[in-house]
Specification:
133 residues; 71% helix; globular
Length: 133
């Protein structure tokens, strides 16, 4: 069986593309700073859709994963309004800022919707031509 016929390999290959592109774009210095952060939300959503798909590869998960990623990342966005000492400590690290963010903004939500939609399309492309349960 060719390597990229497997759903897992297609997903891993997709993650290998989206992760560096998303990280590089968020630090691209020849763009407007706020745009880097906002569009980074699109890559963030797609990444989590692909990552979750590694663990559940069913036909229903193709539409359920983007929906749950949207709900969970929206909750994480609201969690940025909360500043208990533990979360302040987590946000003091680069990986903490990347995973849970530091500041709430309503402007992130349209990009979360776009990213989840693109994540859904990406998952559909991954499963195209395969037989899933």
């Amino acid at each position: 069986m060719p390597l990229f016929k497997s759903l897992h390999w297609r997903t891993i290959f997709s993650l290998a593309i989206i992760l560096p592109v998303g990280l590089l774009y968020s630090h691209y210095r020849y763009s407007v700073g706020w745009l880097n952060q906002e569009v980074g939300g699109i890559f963030y959503q797609i990444f989590w859709c692909l990552f979750a798909f590694l663990f559940t590869t069913t036909r229903a998960s193709v539409w359920q994963i983007p929906l749950w990623v949207l709900v969970i990342t929206s909750l994480v966005e609201f969690m940025q309004l909360w500043h208990p000492p533990f979360l302040v400590w987590v946000r003091s690290f680069w990986w903490g800022r990347m995973l849970i963010g530091t500041a709430f903004t309503w402007a992130d939500f349209p990009y979360y919707f776009i990213g989840s939609g693109l994540g859904w399309l990406w998952l559909r492309l991954i499963v195209q031509g395969t037989k899933l349960k």
